[in-house]
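OsmC family protein structure dump, as promised
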Amino acid sequence: MPTSNANATWNGDLKNGNGTMKFDSGSYEGKYTFASRFENGESTNPEELIGAAHAGCYAMALSNELAEAGHDPQSVEARAEVTFEVTDGGPAITGIKLIAEANIPNIDNDTFQQFAEGAKEGCPVSKALAGTDITLNATLV
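structure tokens r here:
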């Protein structure tokens, strides 16, 4: 299996510094700052990138599980809302809400929900984030 690599550089102190995160594949490079992480500043932050990774992984996992069971996934759109808070133990990701909309012909909602939950549990990113409360809201469209 391939190894995925990403790099980050931070310049200066926490509040006044700035940094850049990039993927070795060249597909992404973005700036991040204290404001983009702890306030509502422009640029990205590590939690946003974790959310993108989780949403992407989940969409692929759900599509795969459905297809392997003989269902025909037309599309799966996933979103991950990552909650980042300052707690008594310091800054922490305190929860992730996966929101998915899927177009899957000829499947009933109960069956779909079983696949949706299974994909949440089986997605490699979900497994990596197992110490975080992960909830799911999956809908057929």
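The chain has two domains: 6-38, 46-140.
lmk if u need the other ones
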